[in-house]
Amino acid sequence: xxxxxxxxxxxxxxxxxxxxxxxxxxxxxxxxxxxxxxxxxxxxxxxxxxxxxxxxxxxxxxxxxxxxxxxxxxxxxxxxxxxxxxxxxxxxxxxxxxxxxxxxxxxxxxxxxxxxxxxxxxxxxxxxxxxxxxxxxxxxxxxxxxxxxxxxxxxxxxxxxxxxxxxxxxxxxxxxxxxxxxxxxxxxxxxxxxxxxxxxxxxxxxxxxxxxxxxxxxxxxxxxxxxxxxxxxxxxxxxxxxxxxxxxxxxxxxxxxxxxxxxxxxxxxxxxxxxxxxxxxxxxxxxxxxxxxxxxxxxxxxxxxxxxxxxxxxxxxxxxxxxxxxxxxxxxxxxxxxxxxxxxxxxxxxxxxxxxxxxxxxxxx
Length: 365
Ligand SMILES: Cc1c2[nH]c(c1CCC(=O)O)Cc1[nH]c(c(CCC(=O)O)c1C)Cc1[nH]c(c(CCC(=O)O)c1C)Cc1[nH]c(c(C)c1CCC(=O)O)C2
Hints:
The chain contains 17 helices and 9 strands. By secondary structure, the chain is α/β, with parallel strands linked by helices.
């Protein structure tokens, strides 16, 4: 059974995602619970990153930090977790190396390996193995007391496959390119398996209390337009086509869905033709041009300032805000204000506050 929660006091982001006219644009930023916040380091203490994800108490505390700091300015929370919990649920070991990022000690080698067969044959139970995520979502909803909606998320199949074969971040993507170009059939079978797990995982996040979901395809920009159509888009589509049906089976209402395919500027048209309600943009897009494409198809956009602008001081921040507000039609329909990617370490929390305040100022009626 879905748990009971206090009614929402601020549903701005949900209305905007559904394409409704709104009083002002909703605002949040990717990676808003993170290393730029001193309170994040304090609460995290000596805990390992994945230990924080696995503790509903710590994960909910971290999720709420930006909501409390930017109260009145921020319109959504995103659950503190990571896209790499799916590879973990698939039986792969992932560790977070301080100041370096995620590391797989034993990445997938080739589809001829025994390890590939094991991963393909394994019955993965995301209900049981990711139970801690659902518990964190439910606890966070309780602690939010209806202040803002809670976003659930997962990694896109292409991005997760990249991590599973590269073993971590990459510059050249040699391993995953070898996989998709040399072994397309086996790669697609694994991409499909990951996509099916994503659907179930997201549905269970909604059951636990997530009110909106986002799929992060952080490495989409490593693919050419035609490779994106072969190795990413069909699996992104599988998720947005199958999730509403799965929610219905579970007796749950459809929630707004966002796709963020970083670097895939060439696929804006195709992404606007999918069943996602919101298309996330990185900063390679000109707001006005993207807005024209999206509004013609009734989609809401999310984004898209270069996170690096937050290092540039007030004048730079005001400049990018003006460009976005003008480009995204004034901010009263079809735009969720965000950055074009996650907020980066060493940004001063007050500079993010100024970013939010400027968006507020330029869109106040
Ligand atoms: C690619 C990716 C990952 N994780 C994620 C993505 C997709 C988004 C993107 O492209 O940035 C998604 C993610 N990771 C995290 C969240 C939490 C919610 C939020 O506040 O947005 C979300 C939505 C926490 C995190 N995930 C990570 C941290 C930092 C951990 C720490 O050092 O304390 C946080 C707060 C670690 C992480 N996790 C990952 C990387 C590459 C890294 C290291 C780089 C970095 O630190 O930014 C994998």
